[in-house]
Amino acid sequence: MSGEWVRTWLRMSAAVVADQAEWLTGLDAAIGDGDHGINLDRGFRRVLATVDDPSAASLGAADLLTAAGRTIMGSVGGASGALYGRALLRAGAAISLRAETGISGPAGPEVVAVGPPGLLPVTAALDAAVDAIATLGRAQRGDKTMLDALVPSVEVLHESAAHGVTLAQALAAAAAAAADGLEATRPLVARRGRASYLGERSAGHLDPGAASAALLIRALADTVPVE
Ligand code: ADP
Ligand code: MG
């Protein structure tokens, strides 16, 4: 993954989160405490300042992800700050391990054997991110969390390696899977996080973390470098 792609993705993410902050906060108001959009917007504004700082000009993909993870962790309150922060840190570590050794990180077994150039590192980074969230949040797909958008999108990346698609097509399919995963959270009863306190009453609403995760994957697809 190029540093330029990560930088552009972080910028796009900050713009999209700012644009959709009210929507995210509204979703969280329905089944949580109504701070998700506000929290993430604050965090991504800081991320923007971090990546656009002259001292970060020469940073590569791994270091940018690590810097963003630290910033998110230190500035986004709530569960999502810890989860997205850890996810970004682990994604950075996975990329840096790949760069040093040519193999993916401990969280990401070497699962993609073929596929278009660039698919392997982005898949390894997302594998590591998913693994970090699942471990820290003790959550899995179906619990009505951000993982309901992330897991299907990563699965699509794994599958696309065998289908002779371009990187842009693989990422577009991953973004569509994340959007479908978000929609699929609506009937679910939350089993993790604040929404789980509502029990059955959490059903009938989209999960705010799945909504932000779908936005972040869409931003990744929208910034994929032209091959
Ligand atoms: P908080 O619930 O602390 O106010 P946010 O509102 O920022 O944090 O984020 C809420 C989102 O975080 C939820 O919609 C869900 O997607 C995600 N989340 C919360 N707890 C967990 C968990 N244990 N595992 C995975 N994701 C979680
Ligand atoms: Mg909240």
List keywords for this structure.
227 residues; mainly alpha; Serine Threonine Protein Phosphatase 5, Tetratricopeptide repeat; binds adenosine-5'-diphosphate; binds magnesium ion
Describe this structure in words.
It is built from eight helices and no strands. By secondary structure, the chain is mostly helical. The protein has helices spanning 3-31, 36-51, 61-75, 78-101, 119-137, 147-160, 167-184, 208-222. Helix content is 66%, strand content 0%. It has a single domain, classed as Serine Threonine Protein Phosphatase 5, Tetratricopeptide repeat. Helix 1 runs antiparallel to helix 2 (36-51), helix 5 runs antiparallel to helix 6 (147-160) and helix 6 (147-160) packs antiparallel against helix 7 (167-184). Bound molecules: adenosine-5'-diphosphate and magnesium ion. Residues 28, 32-33, 35-36, 78, 194 line the site of magnesium ion.
